[in-house]
Amino acid sequence: MLHHCSLVDLSGYNQHDPTIADYLIDAGELWLTNGVDDFRLDAVKYPFPSFIASFTREMIEKSALLGRVGMMSFSEETPAFKIIKTLARLRQHSPAIQRGEYTPLYEDQDVLVFKRQLGSETVVVGVNRGLPKQITVSGATGLPNGSYRSLLDPTKNGVLLVTDQGFQIQLGQNGAVVVWLK
Predict the structure, then answer these.
(1) Distances in Å between the alpha carbon of 67 and those of 13, 26, 97, 130, 132?
(2) 142 partner at 20 to 30 Å CA-CA among 29, 49, 91, 120?
């Protein structure tokens, strides 16, 4: 029973009732179909382990039908965890991420590339929820010329190439690139 948190006043759902369980699973599938990538079930009041297992299984199956790769289980060795850890460290140490100006550089239905800039520090972020892509953008970006590695995979050289004419960024399938220019 919850007594000392903000969930105490929320109503509960009897996830053992098949009608309610089906409703919650249908709602989850609707959100997946509309582009949601993840759920937080640990914030649900009184979650039943059997329902969480059933819900997770259904969402993984629906994600697979939609052609989307999901995080099948929690592990500090997963790519998702490593990305989150890297981004958390960056947020802690980068004034540009903390309070810099946001400028979109490119976007389409699957890709968003933007920069956050504060003073001489810039962070460029590219996120792709689709197939692998090489994005080329013409025109001035305000970025210094050079070939840059991503913080998310420093072994790959040249994922971001900036010239006077614009930039190129390499984005893997369901991938992300984060470049910190100090």
Answers:
(1) 30, 18, 31, 9, 14
(2) 91
H or E segment to which residue 95 belongs = helix 95-99
Say whether both 87 and 168 belong to one domain: yes
CA distance 139 to 176: 22
Q: How far is CA 101 from the centre of its chain?
A: 20
The verdict on pTM exceeding 0.70 is: no
Please report whether residue 22 resides in a domain: yes
pLDDT tens per residue across span 113-144: 999 999 999 999 999 988 999 999 998 888 88
Residue 77 CB contacts under 8 Å (≥ 6 apart), including other chains:
none
- 152 shares a domain with 122: yes
Is 70 domain-assigned?
no
Q: What is the residue range of 47's domain? A: 6-65
Phi and psi at 99, nearest 5°, equal -145, 15
Degrees to nearest 5, angle at CA 18 with 13 and 24: 50
